[in-house]
Write a structure and sequence with these properties.
heterotrimer, A mainly alpha (131), B alpha+beta (550), C alpha/beta (568), B: 550 residues, alpha+beta, Arc Repressor Mutant, subunit A, 3 domains, 17 helices, 37% helix, disordered N terminus, C: 568 residues, alpha/beta, Amidase signature (AS) enzymes, 11-stranded mixed β-sheet, 22 helices, 41% helix, disordered C terminus
Chain lengths: 131, 550, 568
C-alpha cells in the first residue's frame, strides 16, 4: 500500500522557538470588552485569548510572500444584481412582535451615548444581571 | 492628512431629535445669495487673524452622504420612503434577523456609476464590500456594509464656481479632488426621549442606499465648501441619483477641518458633523477654522475629535463618542461576491444577460447635460452674464422656465433674463415658492413681454401688469392691460394735452429747458409718465416735449 | 477485535431496492441473544431508505401519517439521546395528513412527499422556535423559513423536529449547547452495550460529534429519514461519521444559506444527512440551485440528474490519497479502514495514488482565525433590541448590550467573539486576518493542483477515531477539541469543495467508523456516484438498540399495515 509513516508537523515545532507569546494588557482587555460588548469573565478568559493568539501565531511559519488573500471561493464570480422593485417590508407588526420592548410602532432602547461603566462597576453589573 | 480616512462617518448621523430639523433649504435665495450669508472666509480671514498667526489658513475636506434615489433599499426589497409610519418599510434583512442575506439593488449601482462619471471618476469594474463594525441602537446588525477597500469609483474631481472678489461679482472657479465614491447602507433613526430616558428606534431608513462622496482637503473656507456642496447637490439632482434635500437628510455633510501655515504639514483635524444646509456648511466650517486658530494662538492644541454643529448658536461642540478607542474592525463582507460592472456591452461575459448587468458606456450615453455645461451653453447661446447663468441653473426649474419664455417671445434673451431673475425670482423668493409653483406661467410672461416688445405698453407699465398677473393668474395679459388702462397712448393729441398740462404746472422747468439745459427734459418726461401712468411711448413723448419746449 | 474481520462476515446490504432484507442480522446482532423478528419490525420500517419508504407510500403499503406517528414515537422513545430541541408533533401530523391526501389521489409532490425529516436548530423555521441551542435565541420564532427548509416542505416532506447542536454551531461534540449534550445512539446499540460488558449506559455513553450531533443522532436512531445539518469545518461530516450515517457537505454556493443562522458565511453550507448515499442524492437534487435571497448561490451544473447511476465503473477513476492526512493521533482502526477501502478501489480497477496537500496542516490555524473574525462580526447583531434575549439592565444602550450578550452567549461564543475582535483590530488585521486569507489560498491551490493532475476524488479519514465517551471528551477545551477533531474535514470548507462521509464498519468498541471522499468543486453528483459505489461494497449495519422493545408498536403497526393493504 501507498501509505507513508505518520506525517509529523515539523514546522510547528520550530515555531515555538521563534515567536514570543503575546500578553494582553489590562488596557487592551478593557478596549476589547468595550468594542465587542462581551466580557472576558475572568483571568481565565484572558488566558484563553492569549492561547488563541498563540495558536494563531503558527500562521507565521508559512511564507505567504506575494500570495493574494482569498476572501471566498466566489472571488471571480459576478455578484447578482436584483431589480429595483418593492416586494417586502410591510411587516412592522410581525417584527415588533419579536422584540421584548416596543412602544407604539417603535423598538425601544435605553438612553444612548453613554459609555460602559468602568471595569469594576461593569463586573458588578454583570454579576448582578446573572440569570 | 486632514481629510479623514474613508467611511468613518455614518455613526454620527443619528442624533435626530424629536424636534424637527431646521427648515433651511427652501429653494429660496439664489445660490449666490446663500453664500453671502456666511461671509467669505477667504476674505475675512486676514482681518480676523493676529500677527503671530497671520499666515494660518484653513484646510477643509468633505465627506458627503447622498441618499440614492431608488424605489427600494440597497440590499433589500423594502421601500425607500419617508414620513411613513415607523418601521413600516423594514424587511427581515433590514431588521437584521439572523439568517437573512444582502441582495444588491442594480439601480443603486447604476446611480453610483452615473455619479462617478459625472464627477470624472475612474469606475472600478470590480469593487468590493466590507463590514464596518460599531454598536449603535439604530444599526441593527452591529455593522454597516460599505466599500472600504475597493470602492466603485475613485480619483475624480468636482469643479465649481462661485461669486467672489471684492464686489462679489467676480466668478471664481475651483476644482477639488474626489477621492472616492462608495456604496453603503444608511442607518435607522434614533429618537431620544430624554424625559423618559430612552431611545425610540425607527428602522425605515435602515439600509437605504447611500453614496458617500469623499473629497480631498482642497478647500480653504466655508464658502468654498458650501459652493462645492451646492454644486454636487445640483449634479446629483440633474442626474436624478439623489433628491438632494439637505433638510430631509437626503444629503448630509461632514467636514474635516484643520488649520496650518501654508507650506507646513496639515494640522490636527476635527470632524464636524450634523450639518444640514449649505449655509450651515459655510458657517460651521468658518466657525471651526476660527476656533482652531484661536486655540492655537492661545497656546493650546487642537484635539482630534468629532464635533457637532449647533445651528442655533452657530458653534461647534464636541460629541461624546468612542473617538480614540474606536476601531471599526473592517472585514470583507462574505455574503457579497465582488461587484462587477462592464465597460461596454461587448465586455459582458457569456452567460450574463446584458440587460441585467451594469454597463458603463450605456450609462455614459444616458448622462444628462451637467450644470457646468449648461451654464456655458446658456452664456454662449443667449449672451447672458455668468452670474445669470448660475441663477438659471442653480434654481430648480428656472432654466426650463427661461428657455420656454425665450422660445415664445421676440424679445432678446439678454433683455428677457432681467425679467426672469429680478421679477420672477424676486416674487418667488418673497413668497418662498419654487419655480414650478409660480402663478405666472412662461406663456403669460412671454405674452407680456411681447406687448412690451411691440410697443403696446411701456416697460414700467409691464412691471405693474406683472404684479397684477401674479395676483390674478386666471386673467389673461391683454385683459389686465385693458382693465388697468395701461396701453400706450397712441393718440398724439391726447399726449399733447397731457404735456401741455404738465408744462403749465411746471413753468420753472420749461424755463430752464428753454434756457438751453436739455437734460431737464428728462425730468419733465418723468412727470408726464407719472401723469399718464407710464402709458406714453418714450420716443414719441420726447419728440412732442422737444417740439413744445423749443 | 479487528474491524476487518468483522466486515468479512457481514451480509451485503441491498441498495437497489430489489431485495428487502435490511433486518438480516449483522455480526453485532448475531453477538446478541436472538430476538424475535416481530420486535424488529418498527425499526425496519423506520430503517428503510427514502427510496424504499417513498415507494411504499406510493403503493399504499404505508400511510404518511402512520410513518410520521412512528417517527414521533421513536423520538419519544429516544428522548434520552437529547437529539431534538423542539418536536413539531402537531405540525408534522398535519403535514403527513396532507401528504396522505396527495398520495391517495396518486399525486405525490415528489420522492420526498410524506417523508419525515428534521432540521438542525440553526435553520430558521417559520413560527417554530429556532434557538441555535443558545439562551440568546430561546423562544425566538423566526417569521420565515430557510430556503432549504422551504424546499423540503414544498416537496411534501414532513418536519418532525428541530435538532440539538453546539451553541451557534461552535463545537465538534454537540456537547456545548444550552440544552445539554447529545448522546450517540450507538451508545445504546447492541454492539457497544454488549462489548462494554454491561456498564451503566448513563456513565459511558459516547458523543455524537458536532456540531450537527442532533441531526446525526436523529437519522442514526431512525427517528428521521433525512436531516439538515450545517457544515462550516466539518459539523455535518464529523457527527455523520461518529453516528454512522451518510453526511454530505455540498460545494459551497450550491445550496442556499438563506435562513441558516451563520457561523462563518464564507464557509458555511447546509449539510445533508441520511442513511444512504442514494437518499442523500435525492435530497441534494431537491435542495441545490440558485436562490435569489442568497447572492453566493450558483446554478446547479446541468450534469446533475436526479438519480445516481446504478452501475458505476470505477475503472476510469483516479482516487487520491493525501499523505498529509496520515496525521498524528489517527487511530489504528481508522487507518486500517482507510487502507482497506483504498485497496478495495484498487482491486476494482481504480487508480489509487498518493498525493500531497502540503498546506493542509495549517488549515486548522487558518480556520481558527477566519472563524473567530466572522463570529465576532456575525454575533454583533445579537443585542436584545429587535429579537432574542434581552437583559433587564436598562441604564444605557451599551450596558444593555453588554449584559444581554453576557447572559445570552456561553463561554465558547464569548471567547470566539473576543478573539475575533482582537484579530480584526486595525493593528492586527494584516498580521492575522490577511495572513489567514493568504494561507486559505495556498490550501485551496493545493486541492486545485491535485485535481488538475487527474485525480477525481480524494479518499481520507473523516475523524481520527470512533466516538469518544462524553467523560473523556470534556477534558479538553472547545478550541483544542475542534482543532483535533476537524483536521480532516476542515480544509475542504476553506476550498469550498464537496465532501461526503460514508460509514464503513464498526470499530472494536462497536462504534461507527467512516471515511471521507472529497470531490472537485460543483462535482457533487460525481462525488456521490463514487460514494454510492463505495457504500455498496461496504455494507454498514443498521442500528439495533440493546433493549429494543417494540412489541406493542410492532403489533399495531403490522395490523394497520394489514388493514391498509386489504383496504386498498
Amino acid at each position: 500500500m501507498i501509505f507513508l509513516s505518520c506525517h509529523p508537523q515539523r514546522t510547528l515545532v520550530i515555531f515555538f522557538f521563534l515567536f514570543q507569546p503575546t500578553k494582553i494588557s489590562l488596557d487592551l482587555v478593557d478596549k476589547l470588552e468595550r468594542l465587542a460588548l462581551v466580557d472576558f469573565g475572568s483571568q481565565e478568559g484572558v488566558e484563553c485569548l492569549e492561547k488563541a493568539i498563540r495558536f494563531a501565531d503558527q500562521l507565521h511559519v508559512v511564507d505567504t510572500e506575494g500570495v493574494e488573500p482569498m476572501d471566498s471561493v466566489l472571488e471571480d464570480r459576478a455578484l447578482y444584481l436584483r431589480e429595483d422593485t418593492v416586494t417586502e417590508g410591510n411587516c412592522a407588526e410581525e417584527l415588533l412582535g419579536l422584540s421584548k420592548s416596543t412602544e407604539e410602532e417603535y423598538f425601544v432602547a435605553p438612553p444612548g451615548n453613554i459609555p460602559l461603566p468602568k471595569r469594576e462597576e461593569r463586573t458588578a453589573m454583570l454579576k448582578h444581571s446573572e440569570l | 492628512m486632514a481629510a479623514s480616512c474613508s467611511g468613518s462617518s455614518a455613526i454620527l448621523h443619528k442624533c435626530v431629535p424629536f424636534k424637527s430639523m431646521c427648515n433651511m433649504h427652501q429653494c429660496s435665495g439664489v445660490f449666490i445669495r446663500r453664500i453671502w450669508t456666511s461671509g467669505s472666509k477667504c476674505q475675512l480671514q486676514p482681518k480676523l487673524q493676529s500677527k503671530s498667526a497671520s499666515q494660518m489658513v484653513g484646510v477643509v475636506a468633505l465627506e458627503i452622504h447622498a441618499q440614492i434615489q431608488a424605489k427600494s433599499k440597497l440590499f433589500s426589497s423594502s421601500r425607500v420612503g419617508f414620513s411613513a409610519p415607523p418601521n413600516s418599510h423594514v424587511s427581515f434583512f433590514d431588521a437584521s434577523l439572523p439568517g437573512t442575506l444582502p441582495v444588491l439593488n442594480r439601480r443603486c449601482v447604476e446611480a453610483a456609476v452615473m455619479t462617478g462619471l459625472a464627477l470624472n471618476c475612474k469606475i472600478n469594474t470590480k469593487s468590493l464590500f466590507d463590514r464596518k463594525h460599531y454598536f449603535y441602537a439604530d444599526l441593527p446588525a452591529g455593522y454597516q456594509i460599505t466599500q472600504q477597500r475597493v470602492p466603485i469609483a475613485v480619483n475624480g474631481s468636482l469643479s465649481f464656481s462661485y461669486l467672489g472678489g471684492k464686489k462679489r461679482s467676480e466668478v471664481m472657479t475651483k476644482s477639488v479632488r474626489v477621492r472616492q465614491i462608495q456604496l453603503e447602507q444608511d442607518s435607522g433613526k434614533s429618537l431620544h426621549d430624554d424625559q423618559r430616558s430612552r431611545t425610540l428606534i425607527d428602522l425605515n431608513r435602515a439600509g437605504v442606499g447611500l453614496m458617500e462622496v469623499v473629497m480631498d482637503p482642497d478647500m480653504c473656507c466655508g464658502e468654498e465648501a458650501a459652493a462645492a456642496v451646492r454644486e454636487l447637490q445640483l449634479i446629483l439632482q440633474t442626474l436624478g441619483t439623489c433628491q438632494g434635500n439637505m433638510a430631509e437628510g437626503q444629503l448630509r455633510v461632514d467636514a474635516n477641518v484643520s488649520v496650518h501655515h501654508p507650506g507646513e504639514p496639515l494640522g490636527i483635524r476635527t470632524e464636524v458633523k450634523n450639518i444640514n444646509s449649505a449655509r450651515f456648511v459655510a458657517r460651521a466650517i468658518d466657525y471651526e477654522i476660527q476656533r482652531q486658530i484661536e486655540v492655537l494662538e492661545s497656546g493650546g492644541t487642537v484635539l482630534n475629535e468629532t464635533r457637532a454643529f449647533d445651528s442655533k448658536t452657530g458653534m461647534t461642540v464636541p460629541m461624546r463618542d468612542k473617538e480614540g478607542l474606536q476601531d471599526y474592525r473592517f472585514m470583507p463582507e462574505p455574503n457579497l461576491p465582488p461587484l462587477f460592472v462592464y465597460e461596454g456591452v461587448d465586455t459582458v461575459p457569456d452567460g450574463f444577460d446584458p440587460a441585467h448587468v451594469v454597463v458603463i458606456d450605456r450609462l455614459k450615453a444616458q448622462l444628462p447635460e451637467l450644470p457646468r455645461v449648461k451654464r456655458t451653453r446658456l452664456m454662449e447661446e443667449y449672451g447672458i452674464l455668468p452670474e445669470h447663468s448660475f441663477t438659471l441653473v442653480n434654481e430648480d426649474g428656472l432654466m426650463d422656465f427661461f428657455e420656454s419664455v425665450v422660445q415664445k417671445t421676440k424679445m432678446e434673451p439678454r433683455k428677457l433674463i432681467g425679467w426672469v431673475i429680478k421679477e420672477l425670482m424676486g416674487n418667488l423668493n418673497q413668497q418662498n415658492l419654487k419655480v414650478t409653483q409660480s402663478p405666472v406661467s412662461p406663456e403669460a410672461l412671454a405674452q407680456l413681454l411681447n406687448l412690451l416688445e411691440s410697443g403696446f405698453i411701456s416697460s414700467s407699465a409691464a412691471k405693474v401688469v406683472f404684479q397684477e398677473m401674479w395676483k390674478a393668474p386666471e386673467k389673461c395679459v391683454e385683459q389686465l392691460v385693458k382693465e388697468l388702462d395701461l396701453g400706450l397712448i397712441s393718440d398724439r393729441e391726447e399726449l399733447v394735452k397731457i404735456c401741455q398740462r404738465v408744462m403749465d404746472a411746471h413753468p420753472d422747468l420749461v424755463k430752464v429747458i428753454r434756457g438751453g439745459n436739455k437734460k431737464v427734459l428728462n425730468k419733465l418726461m418723468g412727470v408726464v409718465q407719472k401723469e399718464s401712468k407710464g402709458r406714453a411711448d418714450p420716443v414719441q413723448l420726447r419728440n412732442i416735449l422737444e417740439e413744445m419746449t423749443s | 477485535m479487528d474491524v476487518l474481520d468483522q466486515s468479512e462476515i457481514r451480509i451485503p446490504r441491498r441498495h437497489t431496492g430489489r431485495r428487502k432484507p435490511r433486518w438480516q442480522p449483522t455480526v453485532q446482532e448475531a453477538l446478541k441473544c436472538e430476538k424475535s423478528e416481530k420486535r424488529r419490525t418498527s425499526a425496519i420500517m423506520l430503517g428503510l431508505s427514502i427510496k424504499e419508504v417513498s415507494a411504499a407510500l406510493r403503493e399504499g403499503k404505508l400511510s404518511a401519517t402512520e410513518l410520521c406517528r412512528k417517527c414521533l414515537q421513536r423520538i419519544k422513545k429516544t428522548r434520552h439521546l437529547n437529539a431534538y430541541i423542539t418536536v413539531t408533533e402537531e405540525l408534522a401530523m398535519r403535514q403527513a395528513q396532507e401528504a396522505d391526501d396527495r398520495l391517495l389521489r396518486g399525486k405525490p409532490l415528489g420522492p420526498l412527499d410524506g417523508i419525515p425529516f428534521s432540521v438542525k436548530d440553526n435553520f430558521c423555521t417559520e413560527n417554530i422556535e429556532t434557538t441555535c441551542a443558545s439562551r440568546m435565541l430561546r423562544g425566538y420564532c423566526p417569521p420565515f423559513n430557510a430556503t432549504v427548509v422551504q424546499k423540503l416542505l414544498d416537496q411534501g416532506a414532513v418536519l418532525v423536529g428541530k435538532t440539538n447542536l453546539d451553541e451557534f454551531a461552535m463545537g465538534s461534540g454537540s456537547t456545548d449547547g444550552v440544552f445539554g449534550p447529545v448522546r450517540n445512539p450507538w451508545s445504546y446499540a447492541a454492539p457497544y452495550r454488549t462489548l462494554s460488558h454491561g456498564t451503566d449506559p448513563d456513565s459511558d455513553w459516547v458523543i455524537t460529534g458536532g456540531s450537527s450531533g442532533g441531526s446525526a443522532a436523529a437519522v442514526a436512531s431512525l427517528s428521521s429519514f433525512l436531516a439538515l445539518g450545517s457544515d462550516t469545518g466539518g459539523s455535518t461530516r464529523n457527527p455523520g461519521s461518529l453516528c454512522g450515517v451518510v453526511a454530505l457537505k455540498p460545494s459551497y454556493s450550491l445550496l442556499s444559506r438563506h435562513g441558516l443562522i451563520p457561523l462563518v458565511n464564507s464557509m458555511d453550507v447546509p449539510g445533508i444527512m441520511s442513511r444512504s448515499v442514494h437518499d442523500t442524492a435525492i435530497a441534494l437534487s431537491v435542495l441545490q440551485g440558485r436562490d435569489e435571497k442568497d447572492s453566493t448561490t450558483v446554478q446547479a451544473p446541468d450534469s446533475h440528474p436526479a438519480a445516481l447511476p446504478q452501475e458505476f465503473d470505477v475503472r476510469d477513476l483516479c482516487v487520491g490519497v493525501p499523505k498529509e492526512y496520515h496525521a498524528p493521533g489517527l487511530s489504528a482502526e481508522t487507518l486500517s479502514q482507510w487502507t482497506r477501502v483504498a485497496a478495495m478501489f484498487e482491486r476494482a480497477g481504480a487508480r489509487v495514488c498518493e498525493v500531497s496537500l502540503p498546506h493542509t496542516q495549517y488549515s486548522i490555524v487558518c480556520y481558527h482565525v477566519l472563524c473567530c473574525c466572522e463570529v465576532a462580526s456575525n454575533m454583533a447583531r445579537f443585542d436584545g433590541l429587535q429579537y432574542g434575549h434581552r437583559s433587564a439592565v436598562e441604564s444605557s444602550t451599551e450596558a444593555l448590550y453588554a449584559t444581554t450578550r453576557h447572559e445570552g452567549f456561553n463561554n465558547v461564543v464569548r471567547r470566539r467573539v473576543l478573539s475575533g475582535n482582537y484579530f480584526l483590530l486595525k493593528q492586527n488585521y494584516e498580521r492575522y486576518f490577511v495572513k489567514a486569507q493568504q494561507i486559505r489560498r495556498l490550501i485551496t491551490e493545493d486541492f486545485r493542483r491535485v485535481f488538475a493532475s487527474g485525480v477525481d476524488v480524494l479518499l481520507t479519514p473523516t475523524t481520527l477515531s470512533d466516538a469518544a465517551t462524553y467523560s473523556d471528551f470534556i477534558q479538553e477545551d472547545n478550541r483544542t477539541r475542534s482543532a483535533q477533531d476537524d483536521i480532516f474535514t476542515q480544509p475542504v470548507n476553506l476550498a469550498g469543495l464537496p465532501a461526503v462521509t460514508v460509514p464503513t464498519s464498526l470499530s472494536s468498541r462497536g462504534l461507527p467508523l467512516s471515511l471521507q471522499l472529497i470531490g472537485q468543486r460543483l462535482q457533487d453528483r460525481k462525488l456521490l456516484a463514487v460514494a454510492h459505489w463505495m457504500e455498496q461494497q461496504l455494507d454498514f449495519p443498521l442500528i439495533r438498540f440493546h433493549d429494543e422493545d417494540d412489541v406493542q408498536d410492532t403489533k399495531s403497526e403490522r395490523n394497520r399495515d394489514r388493514e391498509r393493504t386489504s383496504g386498498s
